[in-house]
Write a structure and sequence with these properties.
By secondary structure, the protein is mainly alpha-helical. It contains 13 helices and no strands.
Amino acid sequence: MTTTLAPPPPRTTPPPPRTAPPPGDLRALALRHGLTVSGARPPLPAYVRQLWSRRDFIAAFATARLTAQYSQSRLGGLWQVATPLLNAAVYYLIFGVFMNAEHGVPDYVPFLLTGVFVWTFTSNTLMAGTRAISGNLGLVRALHFPRASLPLSLALQQLQQLLLSLAALVAILLCCGEFPTWSWLLAVPALALQTLFNAGLALALARIAARTPDIGQLMPFALRTWMYASGAMWSIGNLSGGGRFPEAVVLALRCNPAAVYIDLVRFALIGSHTADRLPPHVWALAAGWALLAFTGGFLWFWKAEETYGRG
């Protein structure tokens, strides 16, 4: 009996290793199938159109954040009014009583409350801007949308909070003998210009904080210094005369954008200030600061659109 050996299996030549296609071919393949870079920066007109098409999201996001802000506290939304009132009470004790800042300032309580409420609007908007990108990284990395929606929605949230707080301010003004006049309507354009100014700075701070989160730790100190230089608790006009301060310093303090918006709202709401002639340059300054801050902040934020959420 003979046995036959099976023939050895035929030798097969291993397939050549696969090489990745050149990057240029991958890009062409992606473009052919409609794929685009996530977070790519579109041209400015297209970017503005995208933002406008998402205006409902911006408004809904702002309202949702405002509703959730105090949802865990017992007083809820009352803190939106109580917080600036408590701050004003502390500032009145320090500046009005101990430091006698009310000397030479008619209607100091309305003067102080208006300054604190208007300043709080700017301060809260800027602090929210520092967290616009860094505080929503999950949303930024998961979805493709114009990133400016986030700082703009947070600025809108602070405007909504201000409008709620103004109800308390109006009630206090009535208790202090300030009754509605036609000049109260001037508060509307003043706050509109301040909103544009705040939104522009929030956009700029959102870009800075996206790369340097530590800016959020420095902002309270910078904002506190800015507040003291803005005449929220004291009158810048009391510095004029007497030769204690150079006129250039007084002029710089008067042109400070926060001081400009505070002066405009005081001029609108407080009768003793409305009686004084408002310098004509104040409205021009308010419009100039708003246009410069919003245009510059928006363009600067848009130029870094591709970088948000990376790293």
